[in-house]
Design goal:
The chain contains 13 helices and 12 strands. By secondary structure, it is of the alpha+beta class. Among the domains are: 106 residues, no CATH class; 72 residues, GMP Synthetase, Chain A, domain 3 (2-Layer Sandwich), CATH 3.30.300; 43 residues, no CATH class; 47 residues. The strands form 3 sheets. It has a 5-stranded antiparallel sheet. Helix 3 packs antiparallel against helix 4. The chain is extended, with a radius of gyration of 43 Å. The termini are far apart.
Length: 424
């Protein structure tokens, strides 16, 4: 990937951010095309396509140009092409055989003499002139809006694009009705000293130029890949069982979202399996009214008068009730089916004895016994001293020393003599 805002290398060729469409400037992924024929060999290289597709204004506009030079351009190269009474600078988007497919898609003949030519590879002087003229676009937009407001024209100036050599400017505006801007063009030509072209765009084209993030969390389709804007109405939302909420169904442009048409054909194909003339069914409880069609579960949901409960019916049951009503027969009930709402409840696992055969009481008893035996060795009572005198016939202190020596841990060294005296 390459964009002219990621820095340039030698020869004016952009180095590119290598982000594969995730450039923060929006210039790498707007109206981008993947050349899937780039690595395929061709038997006759001389018969290759000599026309290239060039991007302008960070990818918001692109056009075809004939390469009459001896240079072989690659994607991301900056080239100087023919403009209106001058030259313009753009970025090469695609080259090779994929260009022929794009021209066929857009209905452009390869031998059309009106296709402009590529003059040369963009030089440093061309890039300096382009940067100077592009820096005038913001000031020109502010001034153009002020002039249109003074003339009291019902129009909104959206963007100003100045040619690289500064000899022509294209003013993009939005208007609901037709605007007489003949006087406006004369003022613009005298104010900016260049050739003026007025081009009307819609709200969706303006959103594509501005860009942004949609409610889905992704970049707007119109600013990345969508070029053909089809009409969208609320009927598409009704077919998909969406609530008619203007704030949720509207996009950044203020119109209905283009993505409402993406799955419309799938819903229309699925609705062909549902019976017609089943909006109302006559049963003993009253007239059942259809409120929703579930194409995923193939169910029709009805409500009865004086009740808020919804009854799901299968397609076969709805057809059968309709046939009975046509024979002036009123069935007793709808006979709805049971629908599982939510996930099945998971069974909680019971207590598992991870210890095995070892009991906690056994461990506590062994710990208590060890603790008592240790206290008895360190703190002997008077009865033990008397018993030592009576049984040993000697001093009880000698018996205590013998007991301490027997109960001492063999891994520990014996206490020094001073500690023995201190204990005594």
């Amino acid at each position: 990937m390459g964009c002219d805002s990621c820095g340039t290398a030698t020869g004016g060729k952009p180095s590119g951010c290598k982000s594969n469409g995730g450039c923060s400037t929006g210039g790498c992924n707007r109206l981008n095309v993947h050349d899937w024929l780039a690595n395929l060999p061709f038997s006759d290289p001389e018969s290759g396509c000599r026309i290239i597709e060039v991007l302008f204004n960070k990818g918001s506009r692109k056009d075809f140009y004939r390469n009459t030079t001896t240079h072989l351009f690659e994607k991301g190269d900056l080239v100087t092409v023919e403009g209106v009474s001058g030259f313009d600078v753009g970025t090469v988007n695609i080259t090779g055989e994929i260009v022929r497919l794009q021209m066929k898609k857009k209905g452009v003949e390869e031998n059309n003499p009106e296709i402009k030519k590529v003059l040369r590879r963009a030089s440093d002087k061309d890039l300096d002139i382009m940067q100077q003229n592009k820096g005038r676009e913001k000031e020109a937009l502010v001034r153009a809006r002020a002039i249109a407001r003074q003339l009291k024209l019902d129009m909104k100036m959206s963007e100003v694009e100045i040619q690289a050599d500064g000899r022509k400017a294209t003013f993009f505006y939005i208007a609901d009705d037709r605007v007489d801007f003949r006087e406006l063009i004369k003022i613009y030509a005298g104010e900016f000293r260049l050739k003026v072209e007025m081009r009307q765009i819609g709200a969706r084209q303006e959103a594509a130029k501005v860009g942004g993030i949609g409610s889905c969390g992704r970049e707007l389709c119109c600013s990345t890949w969508l070029t053909d804007f089809k009409s969208v109405n609320t009927t598409a939302a009704r077919y998909q069982n969406l609530s008619i909420n203007q704030s949720k169904l509207s996009g950044q442009c203020g119109r209905l979202k283009c993505c409402l048409n993406y799955e419309l054909d799938t819903y229309l194909d699925a609705l062909q399996n549902f019976p017609e003339n089943t909006e109302t069914l006559q049963v003993a409880q009253g007239t059942a009214i259809l409120i929703k069609k579930d194409i995923f579960k193939l169910l029709l949901w009805y409500v009865l008068p004086d009740s808020n409960k919804q009854y799901p019916l299968t397609i076969e049951r709805a057809k059968k009730i309709r046939q009975l009503n046509m024979q002036n027969i009123v069935p007793e009930g709808l006979e709805p089916v049971e629908v599982m709402t939510g996930k099945p409840k998971e069974e909680e696992s019971g207590f598992v004895d991870l210890v095995g055969q070892i009991s906690l009481k056994t461990l506590e008893k062994a710990d208590r016994k060890k603790r008592h035996s240790g206290q008895g060795d360190r703190r002997p009572g008077p009865n033990r001293e008397g018993r030592g005198n009576r049984e040993g016939g000697g001093d009880g202190r000698d018996n205590r020393n013998n007991n301490n020596n027997n109960n001492r841990d063999p891994r520990k060294p014996p206490p020094p003599p001073d500690q023995r005296n201190r204990r005594r």
